[in-house]
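Intended use. Records like the one below are meant for learning the mapping from a protein sequence to its folded structure. Do not use them to infer anything beyond what is encoded.
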Amino acid sequence: YGCAQWQADNRAVQAPLSIKAFYSNSAQADRYGRLMLGWHVEGATDVTITARKNGQVAAVNRSLAPSKGLLDAYVDQLTEYTLSATAFSGEAITKTLVVTAIPKLPVTLTGIKNNYKQPLYETGLDIVEKSITEYRDNLIFATHDGHLLFYKGTHDHNQEMQWDYGWHIELEGVVNNAPIIEGDFLYFTESYYDSTGRACRIRWQDALGKVCSNKASSSLLASPVLVNAHAENNQGFFASARQFARSFTSSTTRPNIESGLYIFHEDGTVEVLDPINDLQLKRQLSIKNSIDTTQGISVTPTLVMSQTYASYHPQFIIQQDKDLIGVHVPEVQSAAPEVSVFQSVSRWFSRSMSDDGSIQAVTKQQAPKELKVVWRESL
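Structure written out for the chain above:
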């Protein structure tokens, strides 16, 4: 055996020194304090990352990959990371980013123990009170540090109810309202610090199968509202018989309302999502012209359905401070009538040609339809 002669392996550096990117995979470490840093540098012969806590150097990582790379970091408090890139000439440039750990409980918990059942009293969790949902003796709720939790309710040998931790998921934002459960799924809205929001769905028993809608440019402070136009199909034999009998004496027909998961944005935008088809957007509506936009929609609207009167049109009741607004649940959009190819071409030419023969734009983005307000009251 033998070895070849030594050969110089110099890396040619031709680009000017620059830091293209210095980033972390999150502004906040996960529950274990883990975080990943990444960088992309050009024209450097040496890269160093320095960590500082409370103004003091805590760690130095030298001789890192001079072009691009990733570095696992552990964060237990507010930490400043500085990337230093040095060129062959000795020129050096730096870039800094700041990350933090998951905050400790931001408030002092001052609950009072009494003789009533208090299943969450000793958990030590900072709970968003408006997010607590009870379903079949189980509890679902969110915390201020960005988690959604499930506590399973069971009976012990004395038939006393007790609650045990079931699961939790980490949220990208905050849940400010109570989730709803329909069938096997839990639906909730999530708001983010950049004033955007989206709706999500998971299986409530194991928190798997998470699906979310696209982010919208408005916060979501109200819970989603599920509208099922055919809920009366499962109302029982006697109720169905009474409704069948009334159909012979009444000439009115029940409104054909739009079913779906209604998402009320703070700015007055209303989205109808398909709960079956992965929360795809079915329709976008608005109530901006009928509300005080400075207050926005922060209280979950109440859905009022009636199976007694066929002529009754289902309504949403929206509350803003001391004002109540009754709004019709929109009806299903009627399908556009079929038009022949000849008629379509004729319409296009008649609308697009101006008097001087020039082509005009024929497409116009339609504004979302405004929901119909049918009454107003003040408390």
